[in-house]
User: Fold this.
Amino acid sequence: MPAPLPPAPDATADCPQGLGRRTDAMLRGLLLLVALYHPLFALWFALRAGMGLDMMVPGMAVSHLLLCVLCLIEHRAGRTVHAAVVFLVGELLLLLLAYGYWGLAAQLRVQMMQLVPVLLVAALLGRRPLRWSTAWVCGLMALGAWGDASGALFRADRVLHATTDLAISAAGAVMTAWLLHHSVTGLRESLSVAQQRSQELARKRDELQVEMQERERSRDQLVHAMKMENVGRLASGIAHDFNHLLALIQGYVAKARRSEADELQHALQGADSATRRASAVSRRLLDFSRLEPGRPQLLDAAATVAGMAPMLQQVFDDGVQFEVDTGGVQCLIHFDPAQLESILLSLAVNANQAMPGGGRFTLRLEQPVRDGEVVLQVEDTGHGMSEAVRARCLEPFFTTKPVGQGTGLGLAVTASLVAAAGGTVQVHSRPGDGTRLHIHLPSRPMARAPA
Assistant:
């Protein structure tokens, strides 16, 4: 399990006094709006009133402007909550002067522009400031309504108008405060839920990363274990190939012992060639253990097959007729020569074991009508395979030979190496009718010498 993560940064972390980043920006915009609104309203009112302008109007405008400027200075200094509290207290005091001086009826047209900023700032500060501010505003409205009624000497119609204005204004203020409270509370709860989900996602992400790392380590260990197991299995198959090569070397040595001096050199050359092929087989094991690719080369198909004929002939018993037919094919194949020799040697050994009483083994090159392909046909007249055996003969470690005489890797490795070179292997066999393998390999034409 990963170590517990530190708590996610709060949205109020950038604000020293505890308001969020977006709330901080909204408060700054609100202060600028109020600072511009009151002077502009006073200017518009002065243009309409002319010489009859009440000097209380510009005085109140200047007071609002100075209050907003002071709050903006506090806000810029990083004291956001202090700026909000100063704005709220200052506006409530200025509203006290306005309602006490002009009354309630004179404030009806601009009442919402005065009350909404005050109630919004109170809602940002919390539930208790909002309640006290709403109660204060309702009290100011009652004071203004009393002033309206008393100015008209408590006439019945004026008292009715003042009472109606008070009821409507107080209901509007209470409803506005309720809506602002629930809106701000909902936004704060949504922000809290988003922060919790962000923390949970970060925790899940770290747990997933740790789990992925554990799985990668387990996979690497599994691949290494499979690699070592396959090396052990491949070692048995390579030992099988070494037995064939050693038998070939022994055949050459035996031939050298009973041959004339002229044939002795040829026999020793064959033994040397077989020894080099044995070294190539051991290199296959090293390449596999190091995960190194083969060493494919451009080979003359006919010359390569014809050059392997003397080596392959040593594998067969005296009762087996060995034939090689290159068919006049002139093309190049891209293959590892050591792998090709190992494939043909394994097929020859299998064919010899399938013909204990003698027979005929044919290695033929064909070039079909389709360009870009050459077919290497390996055919014997042995006992053949049943349909069930033929269907599984290319599977790794599948063999019908007794224990200790086969590993089931010959045809499987052959198919794998041919597929890696871009070719295919087709097996045709019936009981008593021998076996034919068609190895299709990509080819390219040989470069012709200029005339």
Q: What stands out?
A: The beta strands are 297-300, 320-325, 331-335, 359-366, 373-380, 424-429, 435-445. The first strand starts at residue 297 and ends at 300. Residues 1-18 have pLDDT under 50 and may be disordered. Residues 156-257 form the longest helix (102 residues).
